[in-house]
Amino acid sequence: MAPAIFTAVVLLAAGFAFLNGFRDASTSVALAVRNRALTPSVGVLLAAFFNFVGALLSASLAVAASQSWINLPHGTDGLNILVAGLASACAWGLLMWRRGIPASSTHALVGGLAGAGLASLAIGGPGVAGVDQSLLFQVVLPLVLSPLVAYSGSFLLVYPATWVARYTQPNVVNQRFRRGQAVAAGAVAFGHGLQDGQRVSAVLLLALLAAGYSDGGIPTWVAALSAVMMTAGTLFGGWRISHTIGYKITRIDPLRGSVAQTFSALMLFVGAIALHWPLSTTHTVTAGALGAGENQHFSVTNRKLVIRILWFWALTPLATCALAFVLALALSPIPG
To answer: Which residues, other chains included, contact 279 with Cβ-Cβ below 8 Å and sequence gap of 6+?
Structure first.
């Protein structure tokens, strides 16, 4: 029974990685495409390449990520929790893509794992150690703090950027910052690979530990599977969400787009490498674009859409928690 459930976890993790690239990675180049710093085809190829490299390198960070998340029970109990958590995160991700809402895959996944763990406790099964800490440090704090930091940092950095460019012709400013935005888009894609690649690898490591197939090391195929599936998803390009960020939320020029993406990339690097903190690329890029776009002399923000997105951000971990709770109960054997 355990090998079959383990196979299901691997397939769902591969699907989650594909959806992650499909929904999120093209977000890294949305602003660059919007400002004609990159064409859509070149942008997708750039995002795919740097996402692949970042996901491959993220395997070395996955051990720390899995240890800071949760500790699953061994055997089929732990594997069932992963199945329910991944399935709920995938279902929610598809719904958000269909609606064009930039929502976090990371928060969906952690909410799903928490809900499945609660279902295990509800039927008298083994609990999931670290759920409370995971919800606090992996969902609540990043959900509140990372968008605020991205918004505030991008808003404030527009001031020195515009001061430096104050005596330069507008067409020259746009040309220079388009080049910078193309570089920043690659950096964001690389940061996305580092961040979300380690999430997929950490889930697979948890599955290996629960099934008794690993002693804590990361097999090569885990990093390869994460990188390949995320890259494949990127190449298919889910542009609904990218269109929302690039065109619907706010109007942004190359200078502000370059500022937003540069600061977002910096946040992703610090979160992945220094803090081992799972920051959402979607939340960071969206908030950064909004902050930079708000620093103008006229209103350019679709506030109704922003409020709607914020509601979905808050709903994401709650919805996946509830869905995973139901799925985990359906997968659990009835006690005799």
So the answer is: 106, 142, 146, 195, 267, 268, 271, 272
Spatial contact of 65 and 278, defined as CB atoms under 8 Å apart: yes
| Three-state SS letters, the chain | CHHHHHHHHHHHHHHHHHHHHHHHHHHHHHHHHHCCCCCHHHHHHHHHHHHHHHHHHCHHHHHHHHHHHCECCCCHHHHHHHHHHHHHHHHHHHHHHHHCCCCCHHHHHHHHHHHHHHHHHHCCCCCCECHHHHHHHHHHHHHHHHHHHHHHHHHHHHHHHHHHCCCCCHHHHHHHHHHHHHHHHHHHHHHHHHHHHHHHHHHHHHHHHHHCCCCCCCCHHHHHHHHHHHHHHHHHCCHHHHHHHHHHCCCCCHHHHHHHHHHHHHHHHHHHHHCCCCCCHHHHHHHHHHHHHHCCCCCCCCHHHHHHHHHHHHHHHHHHHHHHHHHHHHHCCCCC
Report how far residue 111's alpha carbon sits from residue 12's, in angstroms, rounded to the nearest whole number.
16
Q: pTM for this structure?
A: 0.89
On whether the CB atoms of residues 82 and 203 are closer than 8 A, the answer is yes
pLDDT tens-digit readout, 174-185: 999 999 999 999
Q: What is the mean pLDDT of residues 60-80?
A: 72
